[in-house]
Amino acid sequence: MAGTSPAMTMGACRMNVGFIGLGTMGRNVALNVRRAGYEMVVYDIRPEAIAPLARKGAAAASSPADVLDRCDAVVTMVYGPKEIAQVLRGPNGLLSTSCAGKFWIDLTTSRPSLMRELAAEFRAKGGRPIDAPVTGSVDSAIRGDMLMFVGGEDADIEPARPLIEAMGEIRRVGLYGNGYVAKLVNNQLWKIHAAAIGEAMVVAKLAGLEPGVWWSAMKGGAADSFVLQHDVPSIFAGHYDPSFPIALCLKDLGLIEELIAETGARCELTRSTHDRFKEARERYGDGAGEMTVCKLIEDDAGVSLRVAGDWTPPWEAKHPRE
């Protein structure tokens, strides 16, 4: 179970873990690694982001290369393809130092083709690459029960399993790069569901079915989904979950569009969803919550989807030990 593994050992050697990227998700994931008993070295381009881990006993590094030099495994969770390429290929990147025998586990939402390139470069230097992008929300990161789409060689994944399971639940998807395919098509469905929920809720409201009653009726039926279960309360509360802003949604949808173009598949629903999220950004701004894609429909219909209740925001979730 996530968060329950003791500090991992490889033979007689204790494994030190590095973590690069301490944003909203990364900070909470790194805290779970620390809770599991690993010695940690951390790095972020924002020095202030290191403080929560430093308070838990993690050491600060000066660069990605410095992290790798001091650790047996490095976990990365940065914004996107440009950032992860810099972490690997930059002047003080992971590839600028010795990778021999070391694990690189990437949680970034990125481009599958780029991951395959970077993994090949890391492996060529004797390293052991694994891609493990996550699905869930910030509350999953806090609790340590994220689902992780894990791609790589079995010979690399198995010795790293206790570390990965300190962060979440493993879903094996084949070789490295496949984790990113799984993550992108997962987000493809997620965004379609989010946009569709706004339409369904507003139609139900206008036809006389109140949002809270609609939600109770939909759960467990053919229309159910993680988005319906997890994200609808952010609409009821009126904050639309800013822990995952529209800007990130559009970054992911851009990567999904690239994958669609590579495959040549028909994806009209995805493109319509992408347009809807662009419209939400134009109206509400980059920092608006992901579910403002539903607020568009709500506002245009002139109705309110607020429902009274104790809707705990995802970012206020607690780790089971706290």
Largest sheet: 6 strands, parallel
- In CATH, the architecture of the largest domain is 3-Layer(aba) Sandwich
Number of strands: 11
Rg, nearest Å: 20 Å
Lateral strand order in the biggest sheet = 5-4-3-6-7-8
Coarse morphology: globular
H/E series: EEEHEHEHEHEHEEHEHEHHHHHH
Name the CATH class of the largest domain. Answer: Alpha Beta
CATH superfamily of the largest domain: NAD(P)-binding Rossmann-like Domain
Number of distinct helices:
13
Portion of residues in beta strands equals 5-15%
Here the CATH topology of the largest domain equals Rossmann fold
Average pLDDT rating: 94
Give the N-to-C terminal Cα separation.
17 Å
Structural class: alpha/beta
Uncertain segments are 1-13
Overall structural domain count:
2
> Helix amount, in percent?
40-55%
Give a quick summary of the entry.
This protein has helices at residues 24-35, 51-54, 64-69, 81-89, 112-124, 138-143, 154-165, 178-206, 211-218, 226-237, 246-263, 268-284, 292-301; strands spanning 9-10, 13-14, 16-20, 39-43, 59-60, 73-76, 103-106, 128-131, 134-135, 146-150, 168-172. The chain is of the alpha/beta class and 322 residues long.
Q: Could you explain the architecture of this structure?
A:
With 322 residues, the protein is α/β, with parallel strands linked by helices. It has two domains: 9-176, NAD(P)-binding Rossmann-like Domain (Rossmann fold, 3-Layer(aba) Sandwich); 181-316, N-(1-d-carboxylethyl)-l-norvaline Dehydrogenase, domain 2 (Orthogonal Bundle). The chain is 48% helix and 12% strand. The protein is built from 13 helices and eleven strands.
